[in-house]
Amino acid sequence: MRMRRRQFLAMAGLSALVGIPAAHAGSLTRTAAIAPAGGAIVDPTLLVAGSAESAAGRWSAVLAPALAQGLESPSPLPTHLTSGLDGVTGANQFDTTTVPDGTTALLVPGAALVASLAGDPRAHYDFGRWVPLMFSLVSPIVVGRADLHRTLRDLVRDRPIRVAVSSDHGIELATVMAMAMFGFRPIPVMGFATPQEALAALRGGKVDVVQISDPMAPEALDALLAPLEQSGVTPLFTLNDTVRATVHGRPVQTFAERFSQERGRAPTGLLYEAWKVVAAAASLDIGLVLPMLTPPAQVAAWRHAVGVAVTQGALDPLKNDSGRALVSGPDCGRYLHDMTGEISAVLMLRRWLAVHTPEWRLG
To answer: Which residues form the signal peptide (predicted)?
Structure first.
């Protein structure tokens, strides 16, 4: 079996390091600290958690050339596409086969994180251990026909509501949970791979609520919703306010704001804590991450490359007025913490799904 060039270089470097006396090891560390960041990566590669048509695939077309300059690569970074739209296949491959030598970074969508949190049997990775380099964050908006105000009569009345979802562990899980907290009996209607398909079902009366996760400029969102407004479809809430969504120039309330307005109190409880974790994961448009145990010098090199891409405007087409907010470097840490959540919240999510998933499958 032929040895790849970067594997040979890594082994040669390790052999050389073994022979370095302790007195010189400190000077080597100091030298690495002041060396140009772009010189630390040999043959950098992007592993794309998704097909060319997925969010990760679209991002790779922009990031591959944008990161090349900061990493001192003579050409755009090679990209390795995987299958599917939700990124689970690529995330599995990254966590099980990628050597943490700093040469391979993963582009992963929030749907892969939601699948892991929900206990999707396909997901065999721990995204909480990844080293984040950059996050593109969005504020998914929930639209539909639903009276979120609950009266005394509603307390004893069954209120089913149909929610368009891609799968039972899909990125729309936060909306399903939100409908339950508003007092409805959510019925996930599965099989909608794109927002356009879900909105067509909403227009045709096949579902009542749709989550729009794709980022878009305010003008594009207005144009998307305008044909639906005549049939009683309205913006209900957003999952967060990282990017404040507006419709016809008016800000859309977040879930917490809308709940407080309708119930006269802020949402509380363990189910709400579980919802916050799922909502945070669903609000990740795309993440650029490295494996756990990647050497600090290589992490610094990638972060340097991200900084070069941002400061030189290479990512402007994906952030200016597009419904996205970009965060990078250590600033990603608190967002990853929110997406990972406390174990009590994740266990609550799994218990809630264990109770309700059989009901959904029976219709």
So the answer is: 1-25
